[in-house]
Specification:
single chain; alpha+beta; Thaumatin; 5-stranded mixed beta sheet; 5-stranded antiparallel beta sheet; 2 helices; 28% strand; Osmotin-like protein; Osmotin/thaumatin-like_sf; disulfide bond; signal; plant defense
C-alpha cells in the first residue's frame, strides 16, 4: 500500500511539474552575424519593458549571441551598429555616428493569451545599414498563424543612389521605392503593412541573421 501511495504521489508531482513547465514557455532571441565585418547590436525595449542585455556586445564575423526574453509580454527593437571602437566605456563611439540610417527588427513576444504569439518585422523606415532577416524556430504555423521568415537579405548599400548615401556609404536613406522594390517583405513607410501575416504561435527562438546569403549572391 505504501509503495502504491508513493508511486501515485510521484506521478502526481511529475504531472504538476510538466504542466507548470509547459505553461511557462521560454523564448530565446539569437543574433547571428554573417557579415564580413563586426557589428554591435543594440537592444532597445519599448517603454515599460525590461532590458534584454545591458552590456556592449561586439559580434565578429560568424559571431552569435543569444539572450532570453522574459516570460511575460515584451516588445522592443533591435538594431546593429558598424564601425565602432568596441570599448563602449563610457560610451560606444561609432564611425557611422550615434544615429545613422539603420535596419530595425521590431519584436513582440508572449502576446495573445493562451496562443502565446510572437509578432515580428523588419523596418527600413529609419533607413538601411545591414541586411537582416528574422526567422522563428520551433513555432506553430497553421491557418493565419504563420511562422515565415521576414526581412531584407539584400545589401541595399551596393546600389544606393549617390544622393541617398550616408555614413561614408555604410548606410542608405532611401528612396522608399528603391527599398520596397528589392525588399518587399520589409516595411518601408510608417503605415506600411507586411505582405504576409508575421504572427507565430509560441516560437522557441526568434533568430536574426545579418547578411544572410541570397540565391543571387555567390
Amino acid at each position: 500500500m505504501a509503495t502504491n501511495l508513493a508511486i501515485a504521489a510521484f506521478l502526481l508531482a511529475t504531472t504538476l511539474f510538466s504542466s507548470s513547465s509547459s505553461a511557462a514557455r521560454e523564448t530565446i532571441l539569437t543574433i547571428h552575424n554573417l557579415c564580413p565585418y563586426p557589428v554591435w547590436p543594440l537592444f532597445t525595449p519599448d517603454s515599460g519593458f525590461p532590458a534584454l542585455c545591458d552590456r556592449v556586445v561586439r559580434l565578429v564575423p560568424n559571431g552569435v549571441i543569444s539572450v532570453r526574453f522574459p516570460d511575460t509580454p515584451w516588445s522592443g527593437r533591435v538594431t546593429t551598429r558598424t564601425g565602432c571602437d568596441g570599448t563602449g566605456r563610457p560610451r560606444l563611439h561609432c564611425a557611422t555616428g550615434s544615429a545613422p540610417p539603420s535596419t530595425v527588427a521590431q519584436l513582440m513576444v508572449h502576446y495573445g493569451g493562451v496562443e502565446d504569439r510572437a509578432v515580428y518585422s523588419v523596418s527600413l523606415v529609419d533607413g538601411f545599414n545591414v541586411p537582416m532577416v528574422i526567422t522563428p524556430q520551433g513555432g506553430g504555423g497553421t491557418g493565419h498563424w504563420l511562422c515565415t521568415p521576414m526581412g531584407c537579405a539584400v545589401d541595399l548599400n551596393r546600389d544606393c543612389p549617390p544622393d541617398q548615401r550616408a555614413s561614408g556609404g555604410a548606410a542608405c536613406r532611401g528612396p522608399r521605392g528603391y527599398f520596397k522594390a528589392l525588399c518587399p517583405e520589409a516595411r518601408t513607410t510608417p503605415g506600411d503593412r507586411d505582405p504576409v501575416p508575421q504572427s507565430c504561435r509560441a516560437p522557441e527562438e526568434l533568430k536574426i541573421v545579418l547578411c544572410q546569403p541570397t540565391p543571387t549572391q555567390p
